[in-house]
Amino acid sequence: MKMWSGRFRQPLDPEFERWQRSLPFDRRLVNEEVAASSAHARALQRIGVLSDNELASILHGLEAIQSAAQKPEYFNDEEAEDIHHFVEKRLVELIGEAGYKLHSGRSRNEQIATDLRLYIRKTIDELQVLLLELLDVVVARAEKSGNSAMPAYTHLQAAEPVLVAHWLLAYAEMLLRDFTRLADCRQRLNFSPLGSGAIAGAPLALNREAIAQELAFTAPAANSMDATSDRDFAIEFAQVLSLLFMHLSRWAEEFILFSSQEYSFVRLPESYSTGSSAMPQKKNPDALELIRSKAARMLGNAVSLLVTLKGLPLAYNKDLQETQEPVFLAAETAAQSLKTAIGFMRQVEFDYERMQRAAQAGFMNALAAATYLVNKGVSFRKAHEHIGNAVCYCLEKGCELRDLSLPELRQFSPEFAEDFYSCLGLDAVLACHNVTGGTHPARVREALAKVRQQISLLSGEVHAHA
Ligand code: ARG
Questions:
Q1: pLDDT tens digits along 247-299
Q2: d(CA 444, CA 439)
Q3: Would you call 163 helix, strand, or coil by DSSP?
Q4: One domain for residues 202 and 277
Q5: N or C: which end of the chain has fewer CB within 10 A?
């Protein structure tokens, strides 16, 4: 029987009926539905709508439903409209008529709003654990790389050498921001819609504060119309994840690039690569390519949520049912992709020698060379010009700045002296970036320690979950 059959005399068109059901996807919310329903049942008992016995059998029934629901076959029900209807039906089968009393003073509008918040809250907790694990691997790889250097690029043209650790720490910074964005999102979503009723507030005098507390919400949501129609938290969650995936896709792209034969800075782990059915020599970076492309879906989820909400009149509209799937997709894709990124990052091999060699060619010391002249009192504009001319000269000769003799150098500027050569070496070039956030090895060690400290601080913030 439908939850609303009294008002209807005609059956639904069978195809429409199947099409409008959400059980095929909102069954994922069964744990949240049981938790929220249990809290509601307790509130009903407190105001005398349920007797102690009824409460006990409802709670018992809900528990039984939750454990049975761990088996996918349990959801073989062609009639239940959604997870709310499904749980009610099972409850009535288990405990009889008392099961129908559970819906007193509540509406599915507040239930779905609550279930989704609980689901996203739990997912954030899980994703934060994964993010910390990824951060830990990234930082461990950075620590292990010691003082190895590599070229850094702007415009994808060789720019200046940096420590490999410095490069990896750039990703750590992005991931740390993603972590705190998830934390912000969690904090903002953590208000309880329960007791909002269908739109105007529950028609029974429920203690909303007690319900909120029981479900570990900060407080009841302030306005019943807002609470039953708000999906900001779902949009925000999807947006935070699209930002995370924008980062992951940049990370993936760099590793794809650096694993190409031309760079060969990294060797792909076979466990995260595939071969070609046609070209026998190939080892392709499929794991990275999939992470890069999942970013598109993640952005799509955020956009589709935003557009679904745009222009909706208050309060609940069935359009809101369409906000579920993008949330599930985002949550599941994020967890799987993070696990893949963690595994890949653990196993990828760095060719430090090759990176180091690449960092010493291609005039990546030109800025340091210009700075040498600045330290001799030359204006930077002039110094830039002199070194630019010297680079052109080298390009014609087919050599590097260090290969020019002092007389050759003095054609460009009389300030060049014997000590010039000592500022051109890789160590000197790295060391001249001795500022907070720079690639001087001591600064990078400082940064590593700081990130380690942040990671351990954030580990304490992750919420424990079942
Ligand atoms: N399955 C519905 C959803 O996800 C639950 C709320 C239904 N409410 C209603 N008034 N039809 O949005």
A1: 999 999 999 999 999 999 999 999 999 998 988 999 999 999 999 999 999 99
A2: 6
A3: strand
A4: yes
A5: C
Examine residue 152 and state whether it is found in any structural domain, yes or no: yes
Q: What is the CATH number of the domain that holds 408?
A: 1.10.40.30
The 3-class SS string of 55-111 reads HHHHHHHHHHHHHHCCCHHHHCCCCCCCHHHHHHHHHHHHHCCHHHHCCCCCCHHHH
Read off the pLDDT of each residue in 342-348 and give the average, rounded to a whole number. Answer: 98
Q: Which residues are catalytic?
A: 155, 276
Q: Are 208 and 194 in contact (CB under 8 A)?
A: yes
pLDDT beyond 60 at 305: yes
Cα 173 to middle of ligand 1, angstroms: 40
DSSP conformation letters of 318-359? GGGGGGHHHHHHHHHHHHHHHHHHHHHHHH-EE-HHHHHHHH
Does the C-beta of 109 come closer than 6 Å to ligand 1? yes
- Residue 15 CB neighbours (<10 A): 8
Which CATH number fits the domain that encloses residue 86? 1.10.275.10
Domain-embedded: residue 86? yes
Q: How many Cβ atoms from other residues are within 10 Å of residue 453's Cβ?
A: 10
- Average pLDDT of the chain is 96
First-last CA distance in the chain = 34
For 283, residues 6+ apart whose C-beta sits below 8 A from its C-beta are 268, 270, 273, 274, 275
Domain annotation covers residue 451: no
Indicate whether this model's pTM tops 0.85.
yes
Other CB atoms within a 10 A radius of the CB of residue 269 amount to 17
* Domain range for 406: 366-424
d(CA 265, CA 167): 13
Residue 193 structure tokens: 């819609």
In 111-264, DSSP assigns E strands to: 149-154, 157-163, 191-192, 219-220
Token duo for residue 170:
């750039």
Residue 466: pLDDT band by 50, 70, 90 thresholds? very low
pLDDT of amino acid 153: 98
108 close to ligand 1 (CB < 6 Angstrom): yes
Residue 251 lies in a domain: yes
Q: How far is the CA of 320 from the centre of ligand 1 (A)?
A: 7
Domain count, the chain: 3
Over range 428-450, report the average pLDDT.
97
CA of 84 to the centre of ligand 1 (A): 9
pLDDT at site 465: 52
- Is the CB of residue 119 below 6 angstroms from any atom belonging to ligand 1? no
Dist CA 7 CA 21 (whole Å): 19
